[in-house]
Amino acid sequence: MSAAALRQLAGLFPEELPLGGYRLEQLLGWVYGRGVTDFSQMHTLPASLRGELAAAFSLQPFAGLQRVDAEDGSSRYLFTLLDGQRTEAVYMPYAGHSTLCVSSMVGCPAACRFCATGAMGFGRNLSAAEVVGQLLAVAGDQGISPRSLRNLVFMGMGEPLLNLAQVRRAAEILLHPRALGMSARRVTLSTVGLPAKILALSASGPHLRLAISLHAPDEPTRQRIIPTAHAHPIAEILSAASAYQEATGRRISFEYSLLRGVNDHDWQADLLAELLRGLIAHVNLIPLNPWPGSPYRATSEAGLQRFLDRLALRGIPVSVRRSRGREAGAACGQLALAAAPRADSARGLSAQNSSRL
Ligand code: SF4
User: Fold this and answer.
1) Is 88 labeled as catalytic in the residue annotation?
2) SS in 3 state form for 91-147?
3) What structural domains and CATH numbers belong to the chain?
4) Confidence of residue 116 (pLDDT cuts 50, 70, 90)
5) Stated pTM of the model
6) What atom in ligand 1 is closest to the CA of residue 115?
7) 255 noted as active-site residue
């Protein structure tokens, strides 16, 4: 049987597996504790059970992966899916912790004009197994326990709320105490701002941290750079954000990529501060990350500082998010399946050759 025809174990809840008691805990320990994705290596399980599991399930949602390392220590992973399509994840180690940015789609239908992913169009939604599988594969390649990855962001390719059923399922597996046991406070979902879906998440959970890609405080500018803005006015997005905050008690992050001469005017900083008054919010200013064909330029450092100061002066918590992995094409808005920029910085792996994937 091909791997594609097998049930993808990483997309299932522990309760859905045909095992109980300590055998189930052993299996979960191998997969989520030790990152082993080859049933034949799970030597504490009886050989007959390993054979049954291998005949019924797969832990290989990818046909291969390529890793591109950036000089700042972050790594971009390009996954080839079983149907030949590709998607990406970015691993960012920091002192004392690390963050994994995963994709929810191949490409993205939202088509934001400043984003390389948006420019490549939409391929398809990822399954929950393909989302959780990104974490297992990265942990395996990094030689760390999947359960040691405590911070995850849905900020890679795709608009997660347009793939809500699979993203919700993946998130619940990430949070499941017998699977990865992550804290919902450390899992962030980044959305371009789809009010009805935010309300659905608010009503039914999981109550992840929410980051809203606002990028402009006025409708004309937002509609110019974000096509979905035509259907979803800022007032509706902020109203949904407010409802989400009321339901979850969580601070909302607002992402703001600064585009020179487009959304970085003083009056836009003032209007943004006005809009966010009353919300427990934090603004992340993102210097535009370059990609071939981008129609926009980054705001100058002085302009960025001025924008930040105006927000701070008006009482808005604000910081600058300098993206990791720029030279590897791994920074925010750069993900577009580009090949490795330098032959010596890419490490090719294949599912066939790696016991971890
Ligand atoms: S910024 Fe996000 S929502 Fe917009 S096109 Fe890029 S990946 Fe899609």
Assistant:
1) yes
2) EEEECCEEEEEECCEEECCCCCCCCHHHHCCEEEECCHHHHHHHHHHHHHHHCCCHH
3) 8-59 (1.10.150.530), 60-350 (3.20.20.70)
4) confident
5) 0.91
6) 6
7) no
